Automatic annotation (TrEMBL):
Lineage: Bacteria, Bacillati, Actinomycetota, Actinomycetes, Kitasatosporales
One annotated GO molecular function: hydrolase activity
The protein's name: Carbohydrate esterase family 12 protein
Family designation: Belongs to the 'GDSL' lipolytic enzyme family.
Domain (SGNH hydrolase-type esterase): residue spans on this chain: 195-346
CDD domains: Rhamnogalacturan_acetylesterase_like
């Protein structure tokens, strides 16, 4: 029996036997990761694309998992209460996680963590987004935390599958304990939109993670991350693909931040075009009353013999000689746009860690990939972005989660 048929049968039988809440959205994602690990739609010097013979299997399996998720949601979804004005609570949860039948939008989540025994709980949601860092509670202690989450369709990459309807939260940590939860429609929220590529996006499968996927855990209630980064995109394709910029721009409201990090895939974009595309994005954000922020790209882990990253591959100089970080800095200065120089910051960090120490930041050990980050690396890089948002006053001081 083919691998797709086997995994489909396991998925459907598990749902029939246990129900959606017992199976858990996290396990459905893991099923998808099983076949995904055979090949990767990658970008950069170390990536390997799917072989032609693998592509039909990948498409069939993704459809199978999506069908299973849709079936499970239809069988067991909690009746929608989004328009009643009442908070949704613990009745929507199991020991593994929670499912809330809500429409796309922005939601405030307040949790009470802890129990009779000592506990340590972290919360992720939707497409592997880290929403709350691991939080400890002593035996008999209960700790209250709040965060704001963006629910959208598709729930991950904009050109990817729709995902599971509603809001899904997964409980993790060394000893998770959820005592109570309240989910309400957010009324006063500042959005941080992310425009970027695979180094930023909500990656669907382990071990990959974009820094935008890890950023929400560093922000408190009242600030929501809407990650519209998409694998493989350049400034050219982001502007031309209808599911990307044409979808994002109408969502921007006055006061929203829009962080733009596009460079890794502008390998054949000439300097004039690259500059013009950045200017178009900046103007488009301002047209809607938003605040653009230009972000230079994370470095590739590509060392010289002297232990530095002073080369075009590491510092994102394309085959036409276009120095992407330099152009971004120039546009930021000319357009009076805040700049997060992530190239400089990641270069300093990777060089300080050295050849061996920096392997854990990227997927060198797992994939021999020096472009894409691990969950650990994405979390570290998201912390650098958080620090700059705070230092430059781009978000209110009380909105940043320091510890």
């Amino acid at each position: 029996m083919g691998v797709v048929r086997v995994l489909w049968r396991v998925t459907v039988e598990s749902i029939s036997r246990k129900g959606f809440h017992c199976l858990g959205v996290g396990n459905l994602v893991k099923l998808a990761q099983g076949l995904e690990s055979a090949c990767r739609w990658g970008y950069g010097p170390a990536a390997r694309p799917c072989r032609p013979s693998e592509e039909p299997r990948m498409r069939r399996f993704n459809l199978a998992v999506l069908a299973a998720v849709t079936l499970s949601a239809g069988l067991t979804a909690v009746p929608a209460q989004a328009h009643s004005g009442r908070p949704l609570g613990i009745e929507n949860c199991t020991t593994a996680g929670c499912h809330f039948d809500v429409p796309p939008g922005t939601y405030d989540v307040k949790v009470l963590l802890g129990g009779d025994a000592a506990s340590s709980t972290k919360i992720s949601g939707e497409t592997r987004r880290s929403l709350l860092p691991e939080t400890a509670a002593e035996a008999g202690e209960q700790v209250s935390r709040s965060f704001t989450v963006n629910v959208r369709t598709p729930e991950g990459e904009p050109t990817g599958p729709d995902g599971t309807p509603g809001l899904d939260l997964v409980l993790g940590g060394s000893a998770p304990a959820l005592a109570d939860i309240k989910v309400t429609r957010a009324r006063h929220t500042r959005q941080i939109f992310l425009v970027g590529d695979s180094t930023v996006c909500d990656q669907p499968g382990d071990p990959y993670s974009g820094w935008g996927q890890q950023l929400p855990q560093y922000l408190r209630k009242g600030v929501s991350v809407a990650n519209y980064a998409d694998s493989g995109e350049s400034t050219v394709t982001y502007l031309s693909e209808p599911r990307l910029w044409a979808t994002v721009q109408p969502l921007i409201r006055p006061g929203d931040l829009v962080l733009v990090q596009l460079a890794h895939n502008d390998k054949t974009t000439d300097e004039a075009t690259y500059r013009a595309n950045l200017e178009t994005l900046v103007a488009g954000v301002r047209e809607k009353g938003g605040n653009p922020v230009l972000v230079t790209p994370i470095v590739r882990r590509w060392f010289n013999s002297d232990g530095t990253l002073n080369n075009g591959t590491a510092l994102l100089v394309n085959g036409l000689g276009v120095d992407h970080p330099a152009v971004i800095r120039s546009v930021a200065a000319a357009e009076d746009v805040p700049l997060i120089d992530l190239t400089a910051k990641t270069k300093a960090l990777v060089e300080s860690l050295g050849v061996e120490g920096s392997k854990a930041i990227y997927l060198y050990n797992e994939k021999r990939d020096n472009t894409h980050t691990s969950v650990h690396g994405a979390t570290v890089y998201a912390g650098l972005v958080r620090d700059e948002l705070f230092a430059q006053g781009l978000v209110p001081k009380g909105s940043v989660r320091v510890g």
